[in-house]
Amino acid sequence: MSALKSNIGVFAAFTIIGAWLVSIIFLMDMQLSFSNPMIYLMILVQMHLYTGLFITAHDAMHGTVSSNKLLNNVIGQLCTILYACFPFKKLYIKHHEHHAHVHTDNDPDYHQGSFIVWYFNFIREYISWWQIVLMAIIFNILKLWVAESNLLLFWVLPSLLSTLQLFYFGTWVPHHGEHDNEYQSRSQGKNHIVAFLSCYFFGYHYEHHDSPGTPWWRLWKLKEANK
Q1: How does residue 113 score in pLDDT terms, banded at 50, 70 and 90?
Q2: Which sign does the torsion angle of CA 25, 31, 37, 43 carry?
Q3: Measuring CA to CA, how many Å separate 108 from each of 87, 101, 119?
Q4: In the structure, what pLDDT confidence band is assigned to residue 1 with cuts at 50, 70 and 90?
Q5: Which 8-state DSSP code applies to residue 190?
Q6: How do the domains of the chain map onto residue ranges?
Q7: pTM over 0.90
Q8: How far, in Å, CA of 7 to CA of 125, rounded?
């Protein structure tokens, strides 16, 4: 990885982490009124930032956040902790199994059921009981200083919605059904604004499998090259 690409990767990572942190601090103190459209907008913004945390961790799994392995992995672990107390190493192993055995019974991300069945199988594959317990403990500690309604609306709900966003654009759409390429994946149509807003260009999924060493912020260039 070039020094420039490494620096951009670190900058992109800390931009997302910083935006998430500033947003969550602001939202924890926000006065709630369900007639205020800003609440619903901020839920979506926070969902997108949660997705950004996971996409950053995903890039770290491919070693594309930083050429410094320690820094790369620290950023990856930080993002998975902020997202939902995931162990980075476990996600790293499972994600590389996905790339090695895509669309087979050995692919931890693959399931032959319907959208709902596949989604819950996907969640069960990655979330453990100790994570749920740990998140519940953190939630109850935060309740000492933050209103429960704010925690539910801006900490819990966006992270749950983010799992749907990641699953739909990063697993279901690219991998369900049959495909005529070696990566058993498809990409969404070329629209870079939609691709970024939907899942940080992760909908360009064939391009990701074809070049897993390309960070999320350069996937649009691969899409341009494949037009």
Answers
A1: confident
A2: positive
A3: 16, 9, 12
A4: low
A5: S
A6: 3-225
A7: yes
A8: 33
